[in-house]
Amino acid sequence: MIDFLRGPVVHLENEYVVMDVHGVGYRVFCPNPFAIAKAEGETIVYIHHHVREDAIQLFGFPTRDEQKLFRKLIEVSGIGPRVALGILSGGSPEGVITAIYQENITFLTKLPGIGKKTAQRMILDLKDKLDGIGDSIMATGLFAATSTAPAVAGGDVWSEVREALKALGYTDTELDRVWQTLKHEVFPEDTVDSVMKRALKMLYTG
């Protein structure tokens, strides 16, 4: 089984990156491919190696804790790898953990592919199984500014997103350019994480 990959990202799509590891290109599905592709040179991506009768797929994460959280999610009845990836794409990892601990069904049912019954199963199955998961997630600069609550105003969300993006090395000029477009597309229900992903995509594609 593949536990992690180390190498540069050589290709990027909306759902996955391709990493060059000693001349072999590995397609890795990620919650946020644009954040992983941002890394210059070699990067480490922690892998869940998923084998089915008709496919072998790699799912990748920037931290061990996200890898562990993904594996806990797919243990829940009704949540497969694709749904688990959608959960981590639709909500920040620490937001998902917090919602499970707080039994916040409203938050969980806003995640892609999650209905009320599945949210209830997530809480029942995982509430006592997430100890030790989350320390590196909470410390990761990319997610540190992520809010678990909906935004109340576009400018408020952008101020948090902007600080997180500056920590990743983007300049004020780049961020001002992105905001001129993005400010017309941010709505009260958007979270910091969702705006972050859109901004990263715009920054990466130019």
Automatic annotation (TrEMBL):
Q: What is its main location?
A: cytoplasm
* Sequence segments annotated as region (Domain III): 153-206
CDD domains xrefs: UBA_RuvA_C
Protein location = Cytoplasm
Could you tell me the superkingdom of the organism this chain comes from? Answer: Bacteria
UniProt keyword annotation of Glycoprotein present? no
Q: Which Pfam families match?
A: HHH_5 (PF14520), RuvA_C (PF07499), RuvA_N (PF01330)
Residues of the Helix-hairpin-helix DNA-binding motif class domain: 71-90, 106-125
Keywords, A to Z, come to: ATP-binding, Cytoplasm, DNA damage, DNA recombination, DNA repair, DNA-binding, Helicase, Hydrolase, Nucleotide-binding
Tell me a Gene Ontology molecular-function term this record carries.
hydrolase activity
Q: Which InterPro entries does this chain map to?
A: DNA_helicase_Holl-junc_RuvA_I, Hlx-hairpin-Hlx_DNA-bd_motif, NA-bd_OB-fold, RuvA, RuvA_2-like, RuvA_C, RuvA_C_sf
How the protein assembles, per its UniProt entry? Homotetramer. Forms an RuvA(8)-RuvB(12)-Holliday junction (HJ) complex. HJ DNA is sandwiched between 2 RuvA tetramers; dsDNA enters through RuvA and exits via RuvB. An RuvB hexamer assembles on each DNA strand where it exits the tetramer. Each RuvB hexamer is contacted by two RuvA subunits (via domain III) on 2 adjacent RuvB subunits; this complex drives branch migration. In the full resolvosome a probable DNA-RuvA(4)-RuvB(12)-RuvC(2) complex forms which resolves the HJ.
Q: What is known of its domains?
A: Has three domains with a flexible linker between the domains II and III and assumes an 'L' shape. Domain III is highly mobile and contacts RuvB.
Instruction: State what this protein does.
Output: The RuvA-RuvB-RuvC complex processes Holliday junction (HJ) DNA during genetic recombination and DNA repair, while the RuvA-RuvB complex plays an important role in the rescue of blocked DNA replication forks via replication fork reversal (RFR). RuvA specifically binds to HJ cruciform DNA, conferring on it an open structure. The RuvB hexamer acts as an ATP-dependent pump, pulling dsDNA into and through the RuvAB complex. HJ branch migration allows RuvC to scan DNA until it finds its consensus sequence, where it cleaves and resolves the cruciform DNA.
Family stated for the protein in its record: Belongs to the RuvA family.
Name this polypeptide is given: Holliday junction branch migration complex subunit RuvA
Which lineage? Bacteria, Bacillati, Bacillota, Bacilli, Bacillales
What is the gene called?
ruvA
